[in-house]
Design brief:
This protein has 244 residues and is an alpha/beta fold. The protein is built from 6 helices and 8 strands; from the N terminus they run αααββαβαβββββα.
């Protein structure tokens, strides 16, 4: 029988001379042509060893990334929140408008309750009604009721220039009205945010609202909505929470 040529050897290898011969041929080819596969010296000790070693590493990296993401996006827990009590004094009327001081106080309390919490802040605001209207009376009452701050509001008549606004609770300088609304068709609510205990003024401002259909109460309610947003913003931006 003639000796097998190179082609017949390759055919015999492809058909297989047994597992042992096939494994030997694979090693020979890989040693002669390393770029086709691993050599016998670099061959791993088990099938798919590289894949099995790589898979747990990828899995561990994915789990680590998911844990970091969950930690960074973790919402504030109740233990991390800080409650700030804010006393709301009855509105002082120094204008010729017809309002109910305690009604406007309660309206501001309701607006503050709507802004009680914010998902971007760890501060929770708790509005507390005060019976006092004047600063010297509201301060001690706020402290007695456990409030860290209190809010004073005063209803005024706006004017186009320097002037005085007067009403049942006295008079003071009138706020300047901007825009095209006539002064007799608008009302203004002046507010002051005070720190209880120290009497320090934290913020103050004026909300001006047009009066439609001679409805003074509705216009005053709209002004209280603006005051509530301003007070909540001031407390959350200037009073960072203290975590023990």
């Amino acid at each position: 029988m003639p000796a097998p040529t190179g082609i017949s050897r390759q055919l015999r290898f492809l058909k297989g001379d047994g597992l042992g011969q096939q494994s030997t041929k694979q090693h020979e080819i890989c040693n002669r042509f390393p770029h086709f596969g691993y050599t016998s010296k670099s061959r791993p000790r088990g099938p798919n060893m590289s894949y099995r070693a790589f898979t747990p590493l990828v899995f561990a990296m994915l789990c680590l990334g998911a844990g970091v993401t969950q930690t960074s996006n973790k919402p504030s827990t109740p233990d991390q929140r800080q409650t700030i009590r804010v006393g709301i004094a009855a509105t002082m009327n120094r204008s010729n408008r017809q309002i109910i001081p305690t009604w406007e106080r309660d309206q501001l309390v309701r607006e503050m309750q709507r802004l009680r919490s914010d998902h971007k802040s760890m501060i929770v605001l708790e509005a507390v009604s005060l019976e006092a209207t004047a600063r010297e009376d509201a301060g001690p009452e706020a402290e007695e009721k456990g409030c860290q701050y209190f809010v004073l509001t005063t209803l005024l008549n706006p004017s186009r220039g320097p002037g005085i606004s007067g009403g049942p609770d006295g008079s003071q300088r009138a706020p300047i009205l901007l825009g095209n609304t006539p002064p007799n068709k608008a009302l203004a609510v002046n507010f002051t945010l005070v720190e209880a205990g120290t009497g320090r003024t934290l913020a103050e401002g004026t909300a001006t609202t047009p009066v439609e259909g001679n409805n003074d109460i509705r216009a005053a309610d709209d002004s209280m909505r603006f005051v509530a947003h301003r007070v909540a913003s001031e407390l959350r931006s200037t009073r960072p929470p203290t975590i023990d």
